[in-house]
Amino acid sequence: MTIAYACILFMGLLPYVAAGIAKKGFEGYDNGMPRQWLAKQTGFRARANAAQANIFESLPFFFAAVIIASLAHAPQDRIDLLAIGFVIARIAYLVCYIADWPTTRSTVWLFGMICVVALFFQI
To answer: Structural domain boundaries of the chain?
Structure first.
């Protein structure tokens, strides 16, 4: 497995980390209606849930970029480096979202998107 493919696996699991943070402590958590419970949350729980949704939304673009660059036989070291850059940006994004640092969050989001777009230009 390449580093970039390992990054795909990691990113596929990262939204569940955000979900776990949103549900941390399960104060009044309703497993029968989890989305409704999450929709009523505020503070770090609401931000972690929003981060979860945004991370999920970014996955298809990232997955496609890595796979297309790999199929096009782009240099593997560049694919790996850009995939790692994206993963680091998304971890930082999650931290920034939970910590309520919106400007920094937007900056790391942009860095992650640049990594994904750059993957398409490796072919």
So the answer is: 3-120
